[in-house]
Amino acid sequence: MEPFPDSEPIIDLHSDAYFMGEALRQAHRAAAADEVPIGAVVTHQGRVIARAFNQVESLNDATAHAEMLAITQAESVMGNWRLNECELYVTKEPCPMCAGAIVHVRFSRIIFGCPDPKGGGAGGHFNIVQSPNLNHRCEITQGVRLEECRDLLKGFFAAKRRGITPCIE
Questions:
Q1: Which of 16, 74, 134, 141 could staple 42 via S-S, CB 3.0–4.6 A?
Q2: CB neighbours (10 Å) of residue 29?
Q3: Is 67 marked active-site?
Q4: Does the pLDDT of residue 121 top 70, yes or no?
Q5: How many Å apart are CA 36 and CA 32, to the nearest integer?
Q6: Residue 161 in 3-state DSSP?
Q7: Residue 9 has what pLDDT?
Q8: Predicted local confidence at residue 90, as pLDDT
Q9: How far apart are CA 98 and CA 65, in angstroms?
Q10: How far apart, in whole angstroms, are the C-alpha atoms of residue 34 and residue 112?
Q11: Packed helices 66-78 and 16-32: angle between N→C axes, nearest 10 degrees
């Protein structure tokens, strides 16, 4: 008998799908706190260096988006505000505020799950992160674990419309 059957999937701990799973775990933490379920992680050389989820309501701070909180943590870990050797994974396309911060910290790449055609800042409504007029542009990878990211958001807002506190597992 083979020690590792061919039927078992190989988990690539450096894949976009894996890191988006980490961001999804953060999004579930947001939902459990009755926050919009968006999660983010920052990686450097294949390792997670920052994790965050939306905390706008709990911190009473309109800027407490998952991306912004993760950026602050990553800057602290790196000892520098420049994060040009880092990548940002987020479950939903960043808004224009977060996209502006992404440009300023100089991420090499952003990876997101579901797009935001109405208000996204990374190719949805705007493409701030690749604007030729700004000092930095970063690569975009979208649609990673799209269905999971989208379903989490849809389920959260459907529960809100029914007037119940979402219980997302």
A1: 74
A2: 19
A3: yes
A4: yes
A5: 10
A6: helix
A7: 59
A8: 98
A9: 8
A10: 22
A11: 120
Report how far residue 63's alpha carbon sits from residue 101's, in angstroms, rounded to the nearest whole number: 11
Tally: H helices and E strands in the chain: 5, 5
Total number of residues shown for the chain: 169
Helix H or strand E encompassing 101: helix 96-105
Q: Which residues touch 169 (CB under 8 Å, ≥6 apart)?
A: 28
Reference 24, options 46, 11, 41, 45; nearest CA is 41
Residue partners of 164: CB distance under 8 A and separation at least 6: none
DSSP conformational letter for 104: H
Catalytic residue among 22, 35, 67, 139: 67
Report the C-alpha gap between 26 and 90 in whole angstroms.
9
Distance between CA 88 and CA 145 in Å, rounded?
Answer: 15
Q: What's this model's pTM, rounded to 2 decimal places?
A: 0.89
> Coil, strand or helix: which one is 133?
coil
User: What is d(CA 12, CA 10) in angstroms, rounded to the nearest whole number?
Assistant: 6
Place of tokens 């309109």: 62
DSSP annotation of 122 reads B
Token pair of 79 as six digits = 């000892």
- Write out the two tokens for 73: 């943590």
- Rounded Cα gap, residues 34 and 24, in angstroms: 15
SS3 99: helix
